[in-house]
Amino acid sequence: MQNVRRYRDFHRESIDNPEAFWRREAARIHWDTPFDSVLDRSNPPFARWFTGGRTNLCFNAVDRHLASRAQQNALVYVSTETGIERRYTYADLHAEVNRMAAVMRSLGVKRGERVLIYLPMIPEAVFAMLACARLGAIHSVVFGGFAAPSLAARIDDARPVLLVSADAGARGGKVIDYTPLVDEAMARAEHAPPHVLLIDRQLAPERFSAPYLVHYEPLRAQFHDAQVPCEWLESNAPSYILYTSGTTGKPKGVQRDVGGYAVALAASMEYIFGGRAGDTMFTASDIGWVVGHSYIIYAPLLAGMTTVMYEGTPLRPDGGIWWRLVEQHRINLMFTAPTAIRVLKKQDPALLRAADLSSLRTLFLAGEPLDEPTATWISDALGKPVVDNYWQTETGWPMLAIQGGVEALPQKPGSPGVPCYGYDLVLRDEHTGEPCASGTKGVITLGYPLPPGCMQTVWGDDARFVKTYWESVPGQQVYSTFDWGVQDKNGYVTILGRTDDVINVAGHRLGTREIEEAISSHASVAEVAVVGVNDAVKGQAALAFVVLRDASAAADPKAADRLAAAIATTVDRQLGAIGRPARVHFVSMLPKTRSGKLLRRAIAALAEGREPGDLPTIEDASALQQIRETVQAARKE
Ligand code: AMP
Predict the structure, then answer these.
(1) Which helix (H) or strand (E) is 88 found in, with range?
(2) Which of 190, 465, 527, 597 is paired with 248 by a 20 to 30 Å CA distance?
(3) What is the per-residue pLDDT across 338-360, written as a single tens digit (0 to 9) for each?
């Protein structure tokens, strides 16, 4: 394919003639049976890509490369938590995936069935995901930081036939014992699977004795030389479910296909990330998030690259660790979230300068707004281009970016760039649904059809997919991202935050409703409002304003501190530490409208030291005054 394409024509063609555009891109992957049609638009807002075509994600990510790169590293694993480093060539990866697939098959995993993966950042997580893909089973990876009730809720929604887990995770030098979490989730879930396949890292004391427990290691030995054929799946068969937070307390299972996802990721590697076969990519995220699915695992492997998987923090053993990884593994592309860079900014710059970064071409950042000082600092410090890109779990790959593999447009500070090919991205007025003039704030929407690789539906709930995503912009059947933005006359979009009650802490999406539900489960809590406020490092932090059943329980500061700590622990138990509010404040009432609706935006404004503006519908203005005083008192502390 030619290397220089004019962005505007390229994008235009992808919208005006998606069939021709994506037919060309589909040649990037292997089809066991060619597709009959590129796009089936017979049932909007659902779109089906490459109908009738049969393919397999694992075949494309692993087997296809054996002929030319069997001895090239596919996966380099580094854990600074355990000191373990392992390298797997494509041949090794193929063997491990076959073993894992044979083990899963022996435990009853078949095409179309779900496997829930609750694992830390270990190579077996990659083997397990690829083994599911090989068998035609649907994986659902749950981030290891989620607590037992969250895990149980996902089990009940996905109804897996197998759960794959480990004895423990590790973070910042601390071992996190998974077994009590898994035991509790298995006990809570109504649809608990018959088996839990345990990867024993020998980090936690052996306590797993439950009847559903199956140890991986002996089975792996038994199936050491197994060969498991790839199941050829119709392009639109589901490949995975990944849960994400929304406005309600119930997470949504984002369902993705096989063929469209493979094509979209392979194309994005060239056009957006500039990755080539043989390159090495280090994506510092977690397999529990969409960035991990797409850019730790599938996209680099589909492209015949080497992917670096890292367990650890950017600060241990010191703040130079990531840069030493770049030097040691000759990393060409790096991808992380702005929060990590804000954390590293506080470190001695000598740590960065000490490493040979000559292999590195570009640093990609996504997941939350990239502030200008952070972008400038890291770009100057590295002497490399930094490329912001905007997307979400639902889309699977970037919606906005400077697409260097199409045309190297100039960067605009504070903006992730221009709409990516395939996305008919339009900013619309929240009341009229009409397109906004440039320079005017609007909701970021996508026209039908979403391009390949995007979510197909909400797992098991087509109606929710339609209602949530396609019926929220007045008068228009368009997909809402639930993000505010503003677009300039050259097409650059700047993101201005969420339109819903979702907050973004350190690049992780959290529903304030979910945190509120967790807090409400504490016996002393009568009512609670959770809002996101600006945070210098994490982008946003969650603050909770709690009304107690009995106000005297927090009458003196010591009792209040104890109660706030107990409430935070409740969130840890219900949701996981990632949902824990940065601060719990006690108030005697919450500001509401006369019809009883919480005035969250007003609370968030006050919590950030801004004035909320006129609120003619407020029931009792003294509630606002209380929040103002509470926040001011906390600032003084
Ligand atoms: P998640 O689905 O967890 O990846 O979260 C997606 C949300 O993160 C988006 O809807 C945005 O609110 C935010 N987001 C992701 N990438 C960016 C970015 N580059 N700039 C600003 N916000 C972003």
Answers:
(1) strand 85-89
(2) 190
(3) 999 999 998 888 999 999 999 99
A 10 A CB-CB count for 169 gives: 24
Tokens of 543: 């603050």
Residue 243 · residue 253 · CB < 8 Å: yes
| Closest residue CA from atom 20 of ligand 1 | 369
386 touches 378 (CB < 8 A)? yes
CB proximity list for 370: less than 8 A, separation 6 or greater: 338, 386, 388, 414, 416
For 152-236, strand residue ranges (E) read: 162-166, 168-171, 174-177, 195-199, 213-215, 233-234
Range 592-603 average pLDDT: 87
Q: Which domains does the chain have, with CATH numbers?
A: 7-312+391-483 (3.40.50.12780), 506-636 (3.30.300.30)
pLDDT, tens only, 87-123: 999 999 999 999 999 999 999 999 999 999 999 999 9
Residue identified by tokens 């979702």 is 502
Preceding peptide of 45 cis, ω within 30°: yes
282 DSSP β-pair partners: 308, 334
CA–CA separation, 109 and 98 (whole Å): 14
> pLDDT (tens digit, 9 = 90+) per residue, 493-510?
999 989 988 999 988 889
What's the CA-to-centroid distance between 449 and ligand 1, angstroms? Answer: 21
Residue 504 Cβ < 6 Å to ligand 1: yes
Q: Is the CB of 95 under 6 A from ligand 1?
A: no
Q: How many CA atoms lie within 13 Å of 27's alpha carbon, on the beta-carbon side?
A: 6
Instruction: Quote the CA–CA distance of 411 and 389 in Å, as a whole number.
Output: 11
> Which residue among 146, 481, 495 is best mutated to probe the pocket of ligand 1, counting the most ligand atoms within 8 A of its Cβ?
495
Tell me how far apart the alpha carbons of residues 589 and 418 are, in angstroms, rounded to a whole number.
44
What span, in angstroms and rounded, lies between the C-alpha atoms of 253 and 541? 25
CB–CB of 79/121 below 8 Å?
Answer: yes
pLDDT in tens, 414-473: 999 999 999 999 999 999 999 999 999 999 999 999 999 999 999 999 999 999 999 999
| 144 Cα to the center of ligand 1, angstroms | 20
User: Residue 207 contacts by C-beta under 8 Å, 6 or more apart in sequence?
Assistant: 177, 179, 180
Ligand 1 pocket, 286 CB below 6 A? no
Structure confidence at residue 2 as a pLDDT band (50, 70, 90): very low
Residue-by-residue DSSP string for 211-235: TTEEEHHHHHHHTTT---PPPPEET
Q: Is the CB of 509 under 6 A from ligand 1?
A: yes
The DSSP secondary-structure symbol of 63 reads G
If one residue of 392, 394, 400 were mutated to test the ligand 1 pocket, choosing by the most ligand atoms within 8 A of its CB, it would be: 392
Q: Is 405 in the pocket of ligand 1 (CB under 6 A)?
A: no
Q: Phi, psi (5° rounding) for residue 318?
A: -155, 175
Q: How far is the CA of 337 from the centre of ligand 1 (A)?
A: 10
Pocket probe for ligand 1: among 386, 443, 492, 504, the residue whose CB has the most ligand atoms within 8 Å is 504
3-state helix, strand, coil in the chain (%, to 5): 35, 25, 40
Q: Is residue 368 within 6 Å of ligand 1 at its C-beta?
A: yes
* Separation of CA 391 and ligand 1 centre (Å): 6
For residue 307, CA distances in Å to 7, 123, 135, 145 come to 28, 11, 23, 23
